[in-house]
Amino acid sequence: MPASFGKATISKASISKATISKATISKEKQSMRILCYNVNGIRAAMNRGLLDFLATANADVVCFQEIKANPEQFDTSLFEQMGYACFWHPAQKKGYSGVAVLSRRKPDQVIEGMGVPAHDAEGRVIRADFGELTVVSAYLPSGSSGDHRQVVKMQFLEDFMAYQKALRATRPKVVICGDYNICHRVIDIHDPVSNKNSSGFLPEEREWMEQYFATGMVDSFRHFHPELPHQYTWWSFRANARNNNKGWRIDYHAVSQPLAASMKSAAILPDAHHSDHCPITVDLDLPGW
């Protein structure tokens, strides 16, 4: 963390394709922007122009997932030179998982993990508090590699539900951003029929998402674009899926109800090509940012 930011407390409309341009990523002056991005390896993403993209993105808070590196393995000062205080929570396993929060405003507190050692060892959750606002960067497990990981995923979902409920009991104004590894509705996946038995679109996973939003969380993108089709945030590297827009919408800014009225806009930026995911943004009308 750069010395200029001091020390925070750390404990262990209808569009079919957005364009990255000044028009797309500009924001209202009084708004604050949270950008969420599964970079699928931050070192590779940096080699593909991630820093140039961030320089134009107007993001006040950046939430990364799947950084796949420890901070000493890449030049974190490049992000600090852009004005960000940086907080990294890598997995214990090298080259795997990991999340981060970057902010132009010094957080009052940063907390790594959700209090479940098995999950926290995988670097899946980091939280930053700014006054009354809490921002969480989360990378929920994938179950696509086999039955064992699907069991791990379902346990994580149960524990994460309890985590967010407990968090919101004391911090009601929350944005939980991240790669949830679940498509919520049929509209969120390019081929719901053939993927009906695929991890990430299983009935029990979709039901979890239904219950999650029913607890008082708002899907920011669908709040503004409830029936806009073909809007995805992840594409397989196989079969030219991205060029054919055969994707899944699995990345979300979930905004708690007490903050919902502050939302100004939400967007997907599919023309950012630093990862197999693309970035998403939500703009909030929050005085002081």
What does this structure look like?
By secondary structure, the protein is an alpha+beta fold. The chain has helices at residues 22-25, 42-47, 50-56, 77-80, 117-120, 147-170, 203-214, 220-224, 257-260; strands at residues 9-11, 31-38, 61-65, 85-89, 99-103, 109-112, 125-130, 133-139, 173-179, 217-219, 234-235, 247-248, 251-256, 263-268, 280-285. It starts with 8 loop residues before the first strand and ends with a strand. The model is unreliable at 1-24 (pLDDT under 50).
Q: What is the topological layout?
A:
Elements: E1 9-11, H1 22-25, E2 31-38, H2 42-47, H3 50-56, E3 61-65, H4 77-80, E4 85-89, E5 99-103, E6 109-112, H5 117-120, E7 125-130, E8 133-139, H6 147-170, E9 173-179, H7 203-214, E10 217-219, H8 220-224, E11 234-235, E12 247-248, E13 251-256, H9 257-260, E14 263-268, E15 280-285
Parallel strand pairs: 1-6, 2-3, 8-9
Antiparallel strand pairs: 2-15, 3-5, 4-5, 6-7, 7-8, 9-13, 10-13, 11-12, 14-15
